[in-house]
Amino acid sequence: MNETPKTWLVYLAGEIHSDWRDRIEHGVDEAGLPVELSGPVTDHGASDDCGVAILGAEQSSFWKDRKGAGINAIRTRTMIEESDLVVVRFGEKYKQWNAAFDAGYAAALGKPLVILHPEEHDHALKEVDAAANAVAREPEQVVEILRYVIRGQLS
Amino acid sequence: MNETPKTWLVYLAGEIHSDWRDRIEHGVDEAGLPVELSGPVTDHGASDDCGVAILGAEQSSFWKDRKGAGINAIRTRTMIEESDLVVVRFGEKYKQWNAAFDAGYAAALGKPLVILHPEEHDHALKEVDAAANAVAREPEQVVEILRYVIRGQLS
Amino acid sequence: MNETPKTWLVYLAGEIHSDWRDRIEHGVDEAGLPVELSGPVTDHGASDDCGVAILGAEQSSFWKDRKGAGINAIRTRTMIEESDLVVVRFGEKYKQWNAAFDAGYAAALGKPLVILHPEEHDHALKEVDAAANAVAREPEQVVEILRYVIRGQLS
Amino acid sequence: MNETPKTWLVYLAGEIHSDWRDRIEHGVDEAGLPVELSGPVTDHGASDDCGVAILGAEQSSFWKDRKGAGINAIRTRTMIEESDLVVVRFGEKYKQWNAAFDAGYAAALGKPLVILHPEEHDHALKEVDAAANAVAREPEQVVEILRYVIRGQLS
Amino acid sequence: MNETPKTWLVYLAGEIHSDWRDRIEHGVDEAGLPVELSGPVTDHGASDDCGVAILGAEQSSFWKDRKGAGINAIRTRTMIEESDLVVVRFGEKYKQWNAAFDAGYAAALGKPLVILHPEEHDHALKEVDAAANAVAREPEQVVEILRYVIRGQLS
Amino acid sequence: MNETPKTWLVYLAGEIHSDWRDRIEHGVDEAGLPVELSGPVTDHGASDDCGVAILGAEQSSFWKDRKGAGINAIRTRTMIEESDLVVVRFGEKYKQWNAAFDAGYAAALGKPLVILHPEEHDHALKEVDAAANAVAREPEQVVEILRYVIRGQLS
Amino acid sequence: MNETPKTWLVYLAGEIHSDWRDRIEHGVDEAGLPVELSGPVTDHGASDDCGVAILGAEQSSFWKDRKGAGINAIRTRTMIEESDLVVVRFGEKYKQWNAAFDAGYAAALGKPLVILHPEEHDHALKEVDAAANAVAREPEQVVEILRYVIRGQLS
Amino acid sequence: MNETPKTWLVYLAGEIHSDWRDRIEHGVDEAGLPVELSGPVTDHGASDDCGVAILGAEQSSFWKDRKGAGINAIRTRTMIEESDLVVVRFGEKYKQWNAAFDAGYAAALGKPLVILHPEEHDHALKEVDAAANAVAREPEQVVEILRYVIRGQLS
Lengths: 155, 155, 155, 155, 155, 155, 155, 155
What we know:
- Eight copies of one chain form a homooctamer.
- The two termini of chain A are 19 Å apart.
- In chain A, helix 1 packs parallel to helix 6 and helix 2 packs across helix 3.
- Chain A is built from six helices and five strands.
- By secondary structure, chain A is an alpha/beta fold.
- Chains A and C meet through loops of A and loops of C.
């Protein structure tokens, strides 16, 4: 009974420019945790172009973006709704409004949330952090949270 | 993590007189996508007669239709509610109010929607299209959407 | 206790080319029923143009339609969701996919539905009718339904 | 029946450094629209300090922020959940992750959304915009949307 | 704070052949309780005939009943869903499957339930009673429950 | 795509004195349909005694019944909530308020319903029947409905 | 727009032996806040006896308690479900499992929560506190929270 | 059909100082019941320290507790929400507010509940017991309930 009798679906939202998803995947594998990871399409070019590549070109960049965002939302919304835990990482750069949008979306669905960000964002993210179960600094801490939640073990 | 860790249930609603469902099924098979397709009963005669064939004849065509529609709804509502994605095709002919009803039903449930129709219906379908994640013209585009959503790949 | 202690909000969806809404409004007024009616914007031109008129012109008619449909949906979805009863009229002409979409949307929300249409559409609307509490032919029958539901009186 | 029989509750989320809320309030008043506006506490200092001012000081700024954010969420979540329409403004400066979080929160609740931002943010906000009923540039356009939605009138 | 700051909507379902609704109404009036009562149409003839009277005659009694039941459900479902408390009375005679259906419907919606029936039905109603907040024998006990729930007073 | 890609969970509620459940089970087996059947505990004695047998004797029959009903509800509510289809049979004898309660419970959850009863109960069950997708007379018709819904075949 | 356009319904759960409810009521009145307070029946004797007083005596104290608890739940569940904010006070004495039950109930409904308790209970209440928007020590702090949430003012 | 076609997920909440979970696990194993048990982390030290051990030390015990409680809630809420049955045990000692909070949380989600406690707590737990399907005294009775619910057998 110490280990929960389930596979945990964990959605990794947010920043796509560093290797944080790989580090979590690596840690989960190493620990042999019953976890399935998902996330948005992290190929930036494909993510930007998918709408016009599949459905046809657009003259205006606004509608090109709209077509792509509509398709990306099929994946992101579905996977967030199916998740047991949503992890959202905010990196050092860029607006990252997608990350905050996904955090709000997950919060309204009542999903457990872990927010991952450097200390410098503490104040700017205070409302987001207050909606979370935990605020972590490093991807490895997310692995430790999963190990503890699933097995009741502290490493 | 590029491929979503799930089988996608896709409901194919609407027009039953062309081979569009077969073309999607073919494309999905060829690509080896983890997709399970469902849809309404497409045997037009059986769909019209099921009520009276199973539950007994009716004198009025109105109640004959009602009996059949009640049974068909067991299948259509259940499969729409279980779907991860609902595709609705509007063909060139007929009223196709069923198709629009199913689109509205799916939209109210918050299901991702892809609408498939020729350009000539653009204006008549504008409210339906606005509720959708994507508007496609050809069944093969639906396969491309699925490939991208599931694998993050553009072909 | 014969009269229900509430004001009934009734949404009148569908066909906008005949005077059926006025006939219901007239009947409700005459009977002094505690009913508030609403519906979509019935000024066809305004409904088509609202997106570009408010948010700026579009080159493609597809995106012009999208802009308008987005704004119209603020009104139609909100009013349907707040309604106690949704009446959907299908007229003799046009595709009227909006009407069927609204019926499906209301059905998925569990709203009581009355469908109003001529007999000639019986077969084409069988699935829609099967989701309804009543199928009426004339607007005055909707008034009679309201009188009975609210006061328990048959005229 | 042209005017919807209700008072519309509109939540104005996001940027708190320009006068955009006043401009919407002014426009709504001038038009005499049946609209009640709400929003977060826009006194920046009070919003930052409310937690420690009411519940007692904290040594760490992280927990000071947490205390304040918990109290602010009582207001923001409640008002968003009660709203008929949520407007989210992104300004030229700052991270504004709160704004995006509120947009995601509102989207997951199925609230109609209007996003208000300058063109320069189009690409960064594409996923947020795709969840919206309308993307506007100026506060006055929000007033025009409300006028049309409520009265069916284009000015 | 002893009296709850609200008007309580109480739906009185079930048996329509005795004066139990009047006795509750009388007791509520006498006590001056902030209660609004509703219930099904209790004119048995009107309730049976409403479908064909409004929507046109039927040859089969089965479909005559269906037409009427569809219209009655607009009232009963709406009022049950809006209620704060549902009281269901089972009398000495008749099948009263409607009463049990309404009790099940209300239970699934999470409505507080009071079941009112003579002792002789105790065993037959055990599953229904187990879903209820209280089992009463006399209508006056329902008034006492309301007085206590609303004012905290035992008479 | 003709066969739905799922196992259907079907709950058989109501009368426990005839062999109707066996007849459905037999028909489903013979047809090889992907259906899993469940229902209440049909051992009448065990169903009446379970409360006191497990939790200790009671002096009053009312509380004995309550203890048993509480435990039975764990099974019946859970299985109804998990079902894709609820079939409710009303037999010739007894009050069968449980059956009607379960039908109301399932209806409020939006479950597809098939009601099974002899013609003599038509009028008494009219409100229940109006909430159903189909009204059948014989268990074998339920098998035919399942065959059609799952495979699109009329036998 | 600084003051929220609504009356706030605040439920005061928990300890009934001190004057904390009066102190909140006094503070709210003094500040003239648009707040309506409710809570359980605080007359301890009436709360214990209501079941048998209204519905008839019981021999066993267990079932006497059950009868009373069923009636009390009509009030407490209804008022919690209608509240905008739930305040739960834990006093120095007694088990107060009701208080913790109500906190869990409100948390699962997504209600904003304020927990009010002396420091000595911090560790025992850590899971409850973690579900709350704020942890306060004195009733006057609840008034200050309401003033800030409603008016954006710190006193 | 006597045995329900499912694996039952049972969450064991509450007291962590006696062997009651082991006794249920033993009984379930012995009977070969299709049951999967889960519960909170029962290693008291780990449960208290998990927050600071994973996310970094805190000076104040209040925030140390908060960090831990946030992580524990990922497990407890998720497992309660996935459960088919929640069993809550109250022991002889300690405040056990967590247990009551979990019971309230489960009740609001509509989960079937079994409460397990010695007779001495009857009065203090009356509101909690009234929300439950059964009140048991010994863990073995929970096993008997499961055997009956799943197989329809009394031992």
